[in-house]
Design brief:
- The protein is of the alpha+beta class and 307 residues long.
- The protein has a domain of 205 residues: Brix domain (Rossmann fold, 3-Layer(aba) Sandwich).
- Strand 4 and strand 5 form a beta hairpin.
């Protein structure tokens, strides 16, 4: 049994809270990311990792030391750091003659590798090179994906899912218009992936709805996909499985149309209109046959002695 797999019993309240924070929950904590440098990372790769780290703050961990590891050959070190730092996302930067300016985006499931995509940086513009105002730390970005490759190609489809998982930020119940300050745009065309980062500027338009302008604030990347390590369909389905307690219970006889209008279906038994209760008025009272005949002839029927 490894050191990380052994059962640890807390001795203090602080250690107990720490272990409770890492326990499985119905609603999991916000996903954290770790940024690691390879043993031969150059200055470009280091700047790219720092800029991605600034976009992911505060849910991230940055390792300063270089790690001599090859994720596509051995993932044990990444899984060790993932469990130690409680991070399910990672970015690994490396540089060599065969694969220069290399970034590997990946994610874990149960602290074991799930997906991993290797991207080459053909062009990189850092945050410092773009002299504009930046978004505050922890701003939840809007994600836009353009290009048919994200819907047709399986590798690009998994990459889209990975990028959404990486940059989506915390789950919120409501958003105000002034809080929409950051836009991340991904475009897949001609075998390349262009990542651009914009700051949203709201200007006066003469009406209640403001005029929106996008100002590039960096960083920007021109990626080319190299290698991929994708999970099998069964493992990916298991990773996407939601607990039964969080699944919405299906309500019978309720449906929705394309516009979100809710319709309800009511089941009723066949009614006997003869027993239907009506208003008690004199005209609707039931009368005998003799009274009805006399009323039609214009006279009153003769009463017998028995009556």
């Amino acid at each position: 049994m490894s050191e990380l797999d052994r059962v640890i019993k807390p001795k203090t309240r602080r250690a107990k809270r720490f272990l409770q924070h890492r326990e499985p929950k119905l609603t999991e904590n916000d996903k954290c990311a770790m940024f690691l440098k390879g043993g031969n990372a150059n200055n470009t790769v280091t700047k790219a990792l720092k800029d991605l780290h600034s976009l992911k703050k505060p849910h991230c961990v940055m390792y300063q030391r270089k790690n001599v590891t090859r994720p596509f050959e051995d993932t044990t070190s990444l899984e060790f750091f993932s469990k130690k730092a409680d991070c399910s996302l990672f970015v690994f930067g490396s540089h060599n003659k065969k694969r220069p300016n290399n970034l590997i985006f990946g994610r874990m499931f149960d602290f074991h590798l799930l997906d991993m995509v290797e991207l080459c940086m053909e062009k990189f513009v850092s945050l410092q090179e773009v002299k504009t105002a930046k978004c505050p730390e922890g701003t939840k970005p809007l994600l836009i994906f353009a290009g048919d490759a994200f819907e047709i190609n399986e590798d690009y489809r998994r990459l889209k899912s990975l990028l959404i998982d990486f940059f989506r930020g915390p789950v919120v119940s409501a958003i105000r218009l002034a809080g929409l300050e950051h836009v991340l745009h991904f475009t897949a065309v001609d075998g390349k992936i262009f990542m651009r980062s914009y700051k949203v500027i709201l200007k006066k338009s003469g009406c209640r709805t403001p005029r929106i302008e996008l100002e590039e604030m960096g960083p920007s990347f021109d990626f080319v996909m190299r290698r991929t390590h994708l999970a099998s369909d069964d493992l990916f389905k298991l990773a996407m499985k939601r607990p039964k307690a969080l699944q919405a219970k299906k309500k019978k006889n309720i449906s929705h149309d394309t516009f979100g209008t809710q319709y309800g279906r009511i089941h009723m038994q066949k009614q006997d209109l003869g027993k239907l209760q009506t208003r008690k008025v004199k005209a609707l009272k039931k009368r005998g046959a003799k009274k009805m005949l006399a009323a039609n002839e214009g006279g009153s029927p003769k009463r017998s002695r028995k009556e």
